[in-house]
Amino acid sequence: MLDMTGRGKGICALASYSGNKVSGLILGRFENKEAEMLSVYVNPFFRKKGIASMLLKQFEKKAAAAGCSKIKAAFTSAMPSFGAVKRLFEKNGWSKPQKRMKLIYFSRENLYREIQENPRYEKYKNALLPKGFELVKWCELQPEKIAQIKSRHNQPGGWTDDNTPFREPEKMEKLNSFAILKDDSVAGWFITHRINPDTIRYTQIYNDPVANGMRGIIIQTVIHAYWLHAMYGPEKGCFIIYEWNTSLLKIFEKLMEKLTDSCTESFGVEKDIGQD
Ligand SMILES: CC(C)(COP(=O)(O)OP(=O)(O)OC[C@H]1O[C@@H](n2cnc3c(N)ncnc32)[C@H](O)[C@@H]1OP(=O)(O)O)[C@@H](O)C(=O)NCCC(=O)NCCS
């Protein structure tokens, strides 16, 4: 076993050898008291011999030694090894997989066609919002508005880490990430990220409870963002719907079904490794 843990801050990387060949790799990170197993891979020639289980056990030991009390991992239904991954965690005493989110992929071509052909989209193209509302590109948002948003983090009735607009700022998409203003105050946001050169990920919609009467605004925002993507954006889009986000699920049902090229589900698993 080759142990490369500690060469990068909080990173754990382990490799297994069978003879003089690398047969498997596991990579993860430790942060505060939580560990995350990011990936495990076994050379196809050496599979079903218990190597992944052995690597996972070693990773668990390293995490416990680093002071972690819990380990998390995620995997998707699109992985060719979906069955094997599920079994791997089950066999090693991890929690039952919890559905976390759906990832829905679409092409710009389909988006463009849908927007051109479906008259429902016509009125939304210019984001004609009701009086008092305004869409401002996130990259053009004034610093005092950002401060206003930050002041409501974890406040009663405010936003939480689950719907933060500040995740992955370096990937934030300039074309169609918006703040929604109501009477010049930030009332919500719609955040997208360029996850690779040809894909925009639709990451976050948030409707701040401080702003009443947002009905219809979110849907206009989404369609306006789609329209910008269809006209000026890259080849692909990917929409994330978290399981808890039932209102977004409804929007998806209304707008996205016809556009979907493929859909995968992502699952989360965890294991308590018994420290406090
Ligand atoms: C998932 C993977 C790491 C498993 O590696 P492995 O060394 O074959 O796993 P193990 O031998 O430790 O097997 C773990 C369990 O999964 C089962 N399993 C392995 N391959 C399986 C398959 N194709 N279908 C169903 N179960 C499978 C094993 O039988 C074993 O269960 P058992 O002891 O009850 O029989 C390997 O298939 C792989 O590298 N896949 C590609 C990379 C990947 O998708 N990684 C996950 C990203 S997080």
Characterization of this structure:
The protein has about 280 residues and is α+β, with helices and mostly antiparallel strands. It has two domains: about 1-100 and about 270, 3-Layer(aba) Sandwich (Aminopeptidase); about 105-265, Gcn5-related N-acetyltransferase (GNAT) (Aminopeptidase, 3-Layer(aba) Sandwich), CATH 3.40.630.30. It has six helices and twelve strands. The protein has helices spanning about 50-65, 80-90, 110-115, 145-150, 215-230, 245-255, and strands spanning about 1-5, 10-20, 20-30, 35-40, 70-75, 100-105, 135, 180, 185-195, 200-205, 235-240, 260-270. β10, α5 (about 215-230) and β11 form a beta-alpha-beta unit. The longest helix has 16 residues, at about 215-230. The mean pLDDT is about 85. Bound molecules: coenzyme A.
